[in-house]
Amino acid sequence: xxxxxxxxxxxxxxxxxxxxxxxxxxxxxxxxxxxxxxxxxxxxxxxxxxxxxxxxxxxxxxxxxxxxxxxxxxxxxxxxxxxxxxxxxxxxxxxxxxxxxxxxxxxxxxxxxxxxxxxxxxxxxxxxxxxxxxxxxxxxxxxxxxxxxxxxxxxxxxxxxxxxxxxxxxxxxxxxxxxxxxxxxxxxxxxxxxxxxxxxxxxxxxxxxxxxxxxxxxxxxxxxxxxxxxxxxxxxxxxxxxxxxxxxxxxxxxxxxxxxxxxxxxxxxxxxxxxxxxxxxxxxxxxxxxxxxxxxxxxxxxxxxxxxxxxxxxxx
Length: 316
Fold this sequence. Notes:
Layout: E1 2-8, E2 13-17, E3 22-27, E4 47-55, E5 58-66, E6 72-76, E7 84-89, E8 93-98, H1 107-119, E9 124-128, H2 136-152, E10 155-158, H3 167-174, E11 178-182, H4 189-196, E12 222-225, E13 231-234, E14 241-242, H5 248-251, H6 256-261, H7 279-286, H8 291-302, E15 307-308
Parallel strand pairs: 3-5, 8-9, 8-11, 9-10, 11-13
Antiparallel strand pairs: 1-2, 1-4, 2-3, 4-5, 6-7, 12-13, 14-15
Subunit structure: Monomer. Associates with 30S ribosomal subunit, binds 16S rRNA.
Keywords: Cytoplasm, GTP-binding, Hydrolase, Metal-binding, Nucleotide-binding, Ribosome biogenesis, RNA-binding, rRNA-binding, Zinc
Cofactor: Zn(2+)
């Protein structure tokens, strides 16, 4: 039989077969010894083949093959630094939720996430959430950051998951697509998904006032079908984002504004660090390249903070 993985708990997988029936499945042990250095060899969104067998009175499945992925989003696991964590597979669009307070999303995290999305061919949109709760200073800072990423070519939408402001724009972007929602805990993913699809009634929690960080409500990645034909992948809060399988020579290709300048550098193998005749460094001096983006790039190339952390407790 063939189906799509809708939920992954690490040991059990909920799979929707091609006829629309859901089955609880496990994976064959051989997946763990075939060099798949992943905390979760099978991810939500994967197309898989499985056999059915009896387990007492219940019919369960055994996954024996993962079909080729169109794309996937992956990061290095913080707790198991030698392994990677596949967040989701076969994604048409990822929404990264961003807030500048309660909790704060730092540019380094955004840039690592976007570079990974570029590397693994997943289109990304930035959603600046909680615009209803911002003072004038935060509004100005948010507008500046959104303008920065719009100039690079990313779609940015200011939203309020609580009040519903501009959520219609998110729904419009989602039509007919498998969409993943990502961001830190407490950033409003589940609240936004409930606003888009109230029938799902996902559990939510308020941000901790003491630590200004999110209280984790989504435990496992899970996909949901919407009446519109779109599909939503809800994911656990992400605090650290380590890069996977990126050579330092190619990292600049995943920064669109740096890639655009690459051909103008004196040397075709320029890393945009200390090389003479570097077009990126020149653009940095004139303000054509944002300093925050360049700092993120240098961190990634030099391997500083290989797994970028926000300083908050890690969820996954």
